[in-house]
Amino acid sequence: MSKLLRAAKYASLVLASLVVLVPLVVVLFAALKTHAEYNATGPLTPPRNWFNFHNFAVAWTAGNMLRGFWNTTIILVVSLTGTVVIGTLAAYAVSRFTFRFKRAVLGLFLVAALVPGVTTQVATFQIVKSLGLVNTQWSAIVLFMGTDIVSIYIFIQFMQSIPQSLDQAAMIDGANRFTIYRKIILPLMKPAIATVVIIKGIAVYNEFYIPFLYLRSPDLSVISTALFRFKGPYGAQWETIAACTMIVLLPTMVIFLLLQRFIYNGITAGATK
Amino acid sequence: MIARSRPWWYLAPALILLITFTYVPVGNMLWYSFHKWDGLDVTMDPVGFANYVRVFTDEQYWRVFLVSLYYFVASFAQIAIALYFAVVLSFNVRFKNLFKGILFFPYLLNGVAVGFVFLYLFQPDGTLDTLMRFVGLGEHTRLWLGDPDIANFSLAGTSVWRFTGLNFVLFLGAIQSIPGEIYEAAEIDGANRWHQFRHIIAPGIRRIISLSFILAVSGSLAVFEIPFIMTGGANGTRTFVVQAYQTAFQFRQIGLASAMAVVLLLIVLLLTWIQRRILPDDEVTLT
């Protein structure tokens, strides 16, 4: 009986793994086939030549993927740096100062966390437009920096675990408040910063709605929108679309294999706050 | 005086961004929702509650709530699957990390890419049809995305594929935070696996499960990427956010779209309030 149960357990795990992997593997198969081969063979047939990267080359140049990756990288670097600086500064104020309206400020952040970003875009668009940021990378950057409440929470929680006696010792040595933030708190915040960079980085890399709405010019395409636009002209050539899809998925696979443990911890910390 | 204003300097950037891009839009949205406006005109016509009346009476608009139901029901399946695998993998299993990685991985993938992967899977004579013929279900193949009776099931299924990994990792984390000695003690007392689940694991992850249900409701109302990318809202798959997007940015009815957004926002806030009432937050202490 228990042997049967054990077999059922492994069978269910293998089945679930197949459900996850088969849709992805068949796309990889398609991406490695020639046009004639794609039309002649079924989706489950492996490609004849595993090193046929022709479709990848076509997708890379025709889809302007280099530009997509470049734009994504700029937005990632600037908005992540901004999130970390702005978030740690705010967390420093909240956890190291006593001031009037502190509870009100915390309440503002807390309620904002409940507002789903997709719902307010109708009105946010008008604001971004009136600031003249539509069709500039700054629109995506300020929105990624300004809509992130979760990271401020992660910073506040982590900062509260750093003993106040460190601050006091530094203050006796004559350090001012900003020096304490810069030289003592910030270096100790590394684990929290890593968590935020990982979960926020993945979210920004995958974000579709904001770049789709604000970065209309093809020159400003990020990888999500570059892939989305690629399907129009290549609608009938699935082997090329498949290659373009794999180009977008590959970096995520590499990052996941390298940073597994950090990603699990980051996701758990981010979602349960 | 300078000393007293100091914390505000540290807070200023975060507060300015928060107010500009969250609170001002919410306020404006309320204002727009009582007007008829195309987003360009300098004047807005006040129309009272007409936009709200339309959201609830025009079939094109209230229908989107029904579409959310597909995703809502699917999220029950998602939570059940995630819970099953979290429990299985919290005990001794070979290749544990490999299975964990595979199950979680889809959650990290780019939404547009996931949309394309499943467009390919659901194509006529595509992967799904081929697999079904292979196991002898050939006559049951359908137009998975073209048939309005089926399309929402296909899209909700895609959503389950994409998001189960998140629930799974959250459940697994919660189960693994239960100290190991408790299981040992239970085993000495003769508790079998079912007892362990019923009396140790279930109470330990009650909080995260209920949180998942709340997120499932608001998540199923906020579905956007999968239907927008895969069907563009055609064949009866238009969700709330797809409809709001098209109303605002294609048909330029900002007032009506704002009314939709306000309704959605109120539902989400109401749900969160209910959740806080049912499960008082005893862990979060920020001050």
UniProtKB/TrEMBL annotation, chain A:
Gene3D superfamilies linked to this entry: MetI-like
Membrane spanning residue stretches: 69-92, 104-125, 137-156, 192-215, 235-259
Membrane-topology annotation of the record: Multi-pass membrane protein
Compartments where located: Cell membrane
Lineage: Bacteria, Bacillati, Actinomycetota, Actinomycetes, Micromonosporales
Domain ABC transmembrane type-1 span(s) in chain numbering: 69-259
One protein family per Pfam: BPD_transp_1
Protein name stated in the entry: Sugar ABC transporter permease
UniProt keyword annotations, A-Z: Cell membrane, Membrane, Transmembrane, Transmembrane helix, Transport
Residue ranges that the Swiss-Prot or TrEMBL entry lists as coiled coil: none
InterPro entries xrefs: MetI-like (IPR000515), MetI-like_sf (IPR035906)
Superkingdom as given in the UniProt entry: Bacteria
Family of the protein in this entry: Belongs to the binding-protein-dependent transport system permease family.
TrEMBL record, chain B:
InterPro entries (UniProt xref): MetI-like, MetI-like_sf
Membrane topology: Multi-pass membrane protein
Intracellular or extracellular location(s): Cell membrane
Segments crossing the lipid bilayer: 7-26, 69-91, 103-122, 153-175, 208-230, 250-274
Keyword Transport applies: yes
Pfam families attached to this UniProt entry: BPD_transp_1
Keyword field: Cell membrane, Membrane, Transmembrane, Transmembrane helix, Transport
Domain ABC transmembrane type-1, residue spans: 64-275
Origin superkingdom: Bacteria
Main location: membrane
Similarity-based family: Belongs to the binding-protein-dependent transport system permease family.
Protein name: ABC transporter permease
Organism (species): Actinoplanes palleronii
